[in-house]
Specification:
The complex is a heterodimer. By secondary structure, chain A is α/β, with parallel strands linked by helices. Chain A has 17 helices and 17 strands. In chain A, helix 14 links the parallel strand 16 and strand 17. Chain B is 45% helix and 15% strand. Chain B has helices spanning 10-16, 20-30, 42-51, 72-79, 81-95, 112-121, 123-128, 147-154, 183-194, 223-230, 258-263, 282-296, 302-319, 325-341, 345-349, 352-360, and strands at residues 57-63, 97-104, 132-137, 178-182, 201-207, 213-217, 221-222, 236-240, 247-249, 255-256, 272-277. In chain B, the strands form 3 sheets. A 5-stranded mixed β-sheet of chain B has the order 6-5-11-8-9. In chain B, strand 8 (236-240) and strand 9 form a beta hairpin. Chain B is globular and about 65 Å long. The chains are: A alpha/beta, B alpha/beta. Chain A binds chain B through residues 41-47, 49, 56, 58, 61, 63, 76, 79-80, 83-84, 87-88, 90, 114-116, 118, 138-139, 158, 160-165, and chain B through 141, 158, 163, 165, 294-310, 313, 326-327, 330, 333-334, 337, 340-343.
């Protein structure tokens, strides 16, 4: 224990923590910008300056020392912070913005900058998923840290020097022409709107306004645990009913649930795994529902293509069924259906644009929006989200199990698959269905599960640095595992690239807890027990893994190089 | 000049016959201060490095003499490379380093051979302490003369300063304890061990003078004595201490020592003195310096990266006579805050020229 004085008040503190960390815990306000709880402090923005023993220092990287005398605010500090904010907003038009930078400026009472605009850079909007506007970049470096240190993708880095430094890519190519996996971790951490998702709100609103179109929306498992944050609700608020009601208010003709095809994915992927094990197919089988992970694999580990489950992701299964099965039930002309998905993910935008994703005879998904885009749509429409009465999903492709609910958290797909595989292989209904070993935020999780007398070895990785490490293990010991779940984003979809900004590990944990609670509260907790799924096979697909199922629900992969496509 | 004497590795032999701690004590007692501009005690730096637990200690000789108007290290490496190599050998012995990197300014490529020849000539002595000396060429970035950026550069990382702590003496190059010493500092070491050493400084003198060059004088010499050695072409009105040291009005009786110059708001640094004639424009000089800092800022922290850019924009407006009162207050804000919130020595010194010019030559900005 050490003693420190902060604004004249004595505190006992543990050594080793920074001034900012300590003050945040004690609710002593220090404005800050480039600091992020998941990343090493860079001390680049120089907003969090405080006076330490008479000298100005950044609080984010100055560790508490015994006897320190800290002043968190005085005229000089306020002036210094304001000046740095002014320098950072010179290229911003604050009245049109709502991000960490604009909120900070407002908080410090900086309306506009005295300094002239100094950038006129080309906006990179070539990627189907991510836009990069270097005019808005304040070089906090969070995105680079995420891309390099957390994801280990290294798609972006810094080039140039001084005022002409910029976040740049391989030979300054556009993001669609480099080994960017479109995970969007840069977009859920960027404080100034320089990295944002490619926005399709206008296209969707135009479709809704078009009387000839039937606009049908599917909602991913995790977003009901995160959407509330767009309206100031605490992380982990489960807002399923309000989300459905809001979508209906926005004018979507049908509001359906991706959780339905999450269940379907489990049935198909579980069948695939059982077949691989029984018929000595390629093992380990690796999950394919995270499109950022899929693209990462195609760029950096194409030798694992035979290991990948051939199942499409729930979004794409949903899209393929919407314009076939669902359309035929409701006598809809599939050419008039506009298929929209709300996803925690930017890579879903890329996934839907893959050339093979049109097995329904049309684009299986027409627009994929992130949680953030839906939040903006609801806000822009003037809907008072928090006071909405709960709505219910439309029938058919709106019903789902608790196994689907937990898809949004790391380990969730694995657990859902184990629940189904165990029941099928044991040929009975098992009661013990919570697989705690695959839950939680440890980077790589391993477990051995006894099913029908067999030891099934599984592993789960989330975040691409962990994925890379796990694949290196598999390369050395190819027969170590039977089944592997990999999610591109840290924490799984709850930490997805399309989730509210800024996403942190802590928030991802709270969001996951909401999904596990949703699972616990449901009676139906196993995918293969979903009656709508049984009906789908009976009425339309035939058996599990049938030819029709293969045509509509399975896909293939493309080898890509390490530099671009 | 004292610094051009050759001690023929006799001082090294003398040092190598003593325990390293004794060598460090001699350097501490001599009160030798770092000549790169920070004026930190060389003996204490060595002692901290030596006392670190990690056994892989590293010595870096900072020969990235990038401060505009500074050319004293160049003179040493041209006229007396042997004394530098001997100083390196003694330092390495004292701190127990087996590896030394000489980080040589890119523009000094022609001096590389002098150093290589001297290393080859003394290979036997260097072998006795298992010392391996590598010469790393800088590529022209001023920031890489900063002691932490130099380490990034050698490690082939982006040339950006690191945050301190940890200090290089604890966790430096490749996380090893590292002592980073300037060329002039190391060149003085053999002279100290030889005995009879006088604490003299090399002044790099340039500007509006007939006889610019390197002058060896003690700290505290008066500005008048120094300038008269350089033979002014016209009346001198100001002295700039390189780009980073700011300026003071020229008065012959001003003593050139760190304390006096600090009190005046400027920094003597590595004893770079640029004499400015009365007909020259202070604003134009400041504009040149601002342009230099815009070019040389690494881009890591806000005040240096953006602040200096806008200093340059405003100075241009002042020179074009289009500056408003708002521009002027913005300039004053930048002048008083860039140093306070910048991350490294470069940023912390990058506005001193404006600050001191506004203090002493304000009327020229109107």
């Amino acid at each position: 224990m050490i003693k420190v004085k902060i604004d004249g008040v004595q505190f006992d503190a543990e050594a080793g923590q920074t001034i900012l960390e300590f003050c945040l815990k004690k609710e002593i306000k220090i404005p800050h910008l480039c600091w992020h709880p998941d990343l090493d402090p860079q001390a680049k923005c120089r907003i969090c300056v405080v006076n330490v023993n008479g000298r100005m220092s950044t609080s984010c990287n100055t560790k508490l020392q015994d006897g320190m005398d800290i002043i968190t605010e005085n005229d000089e500090i306020i002036k210094a912070r304001k000046l740095n904010v002014e320098l950072l907003i010179a290229n911003h038009d604050l009245k049109d913005e709502d991000n960490e930078l604009s909120r900070l400026a407002k908080e410090l009472g900086v309306q506009k900058s005295r300094f002239d605009k100094s950038h006129d850079k080309q906006v990179d909007d070539k990627s189907p998923a991510i836009m990069r506007d270097n005019n808005k970049c304040i070089l906090c470096g969070r995105c680079v840290q995420k891309c390099q240190d957390i994801q280990n993708v290294n798609a972006i880095g810094l080039s140039g020097r001084g005022h002409f430094t910029e976040v740049s890519s391989y030979f300054k190519h556009n993001l669609d022409d480099i080994a960017c996996v479109t995970c969007g971790q840069c977009t859920n951490i960027c404080p100034s709107g320089a990295f944002i998702e490619k926005d399709y709100i206008k296209e969707v609103m135009d479709a809704i306004a078009n009387p000839d179109k039937i606009v049908i929306v599917q909602t991913a498992p995790s977003i009901r645990g995160t959407l509330g944050e767009c309206f100031g609700m605490p992380p982990g608020s489960l807002v399923t009913g309000k989300m459905v009601a809001a979508l209906r208010k926005l004018g979507f003709d049908k509001v359906l649930d991706t959780d339905f095809t999450a269940d379907l994915t489990i049935v198909e992927e579980g069948t695939e795994l059982i077949n691989r094990i029984k018929n000595k197919g390629v093992l380990p089988q690796i999950t394919s529902c995270s499109p950022g992970w899929v693209k990462f694999m195609e760029h950096f580990f194409p030798e694992f293509m035979p290991n990948m489950s051939s199942c499409k992701s729930p979004q794409q299964m949903f899209g393929a069924l919407l314009k076939t099965y669902y359309a035929s039930i409701h006598n809809m002309d599939p050419s008039k259906i506009v298929s929209v998905s709300i996803m925690p993910c930017t890579a879903k935008k890329f996934e839907m644009s893959r050339p093979e994703m049109n097995d329904s005879g049309f684009a299986d998904v027409d627009y994929s929006l992130t949680t953030r885009e839906l939040g903006r749509m609801i806000n822009d429409a003037g809907i008072d989200f928090k006071s909405l009465p709960d709505g219910l999903f439309d029938p058919v492709m709106g019903n789902s199990s608790g196994a689907a609910a937990i898809f949004g958290a790391t380990g969730g797909v694995m657990e859902a698959a184990l629940r189904t595989a165990a029941d099928i292989l044991e040929e009975k209904e098992l009661d013990n269905i919570e697989y705690n070993a695959v839950r939680g935020i440890k980077g790589i999780k391993e477990a051995t599960v006894k099913i029908a007398g067999m030891d099934v070895n599984v592993a789960v990785a989330h975040g691409l640095r962990n994925a890379r490490a796990l694949l290196e293990i598999v390369k050395k010991e190819p027969s170590k595992y039977h089944f592997i779940e990999i999610m591109a984003c840290p924490g799984g979809c709850v930490g997805g690239g399309g989730q509210p900004v800024p996403t942190t590990k802590e928030k991802a944990k709270l969001r996951a807890e909401a999904l596990y609670k949703q699972d616990r509260d449901l009676k139906l907790r196993k995918s293969h027990k979903n009656p709508e799924i049984a009906k789908l096979y009976e009425d339309f697909l035939g058996s599990h893994g049938s030819e029709k199922a293969h045509h509509l629900l399975h896909t293939k992969y493309t080898k890509r190089n390490e530099f671009g496509n | 000049m004292q610094i051009t004497q050759n001690t023929n590795f006799e001082s090294f032999k003398k040092a190598a016959s003593m325990p390293p701690e004794e060598v460090i004590q001699i350097i501490k007692d001599s009160n030798l201060k770092g000549r790169g501009g920070a004026n930190f005690s060389t003996g204490i730096k060595w002692e901290c490095t030596r006392n670190c637990d990690n056994s892989d200690k590293i010595l870096i000789c900072n020969a990235d003499e990038g401060e505009p108007g500074t050319f004293k290290d160049k003179m040493i490496m041209t006229k007396n490379p042997d004394i530098l190599i001997e100083g390196i050998a003694i330092a390495a012995y004292a701190i127990d380093a087996k590896r030394c990197f000489i980080y040589l300014r890119g523009e000094y490529a022609h001096l590389r051979k002098n150093l290589e020849d001297s290393i080859a000539k003394h290979a036997k002595e260097l072998e006795k302490i298992n010392l391996n000396i590598d010469i790393i060429m800088g590529a022209g970035a001023y920031i890489c003369g900063d002691e932490t950026a130099i380490m990034n550069s050698i490690q082939e990382l982006r040339g950006e300063p690191r945050t301190k702590p940890p200090y290089p003496v604890e966790k430096g190059l490749c996380d090893c304890p590292t002592s980073i010493n300037n060329v002039e500092t190391l060149a003085n070491v053999p002279l100290i061990l030889e005995g009879g050493w006088k604490d003299m400084r090399l002044f790099s003198l340039s500007g509006n003078l007939e006889n610019p060059g390197v002058y060896e004088l003690p700290l505290g010499v008066t500005a008048g004595d120094l300038i008269s050695l350089g033979k002014p072409k016209t009346d001198i009105k100001a002295l700039f201490f390189g780009c980073a040291g700011g300026c003071i009005p020229y008065a012959p009786e001003t003593k050139l020592d760190p304390e006096t110059i600090n009190k005046m708001g400027a920094m003597l640094g590595s004893c770079t003195v640029i004499a400015v004639g009365k007909e020259q424009s202070i604003v134009k000089i400041c504009r040149n310096i601002a342009e230099f800092f815009v070019h040389e800022s690494c881009g890591k922290c806000t005040p240096c990266r953006e602040g200096n850019y806008h200093v340059l924009q405003i100075l241009d407006k002042i020179l074009e006579k289009t500056a408003t009162a708002d521009d002027f207050t913005a300039l004053e804000d930048l002048a008083s805050f860039i140093n306070k919130t910048s991350l490294c020595g470069l940023g912390q010194a990058s506005n001193i020229h404006i600050k001191t010019a506004l203090k002493y030559f304000r009327e020229e900005f109107r």
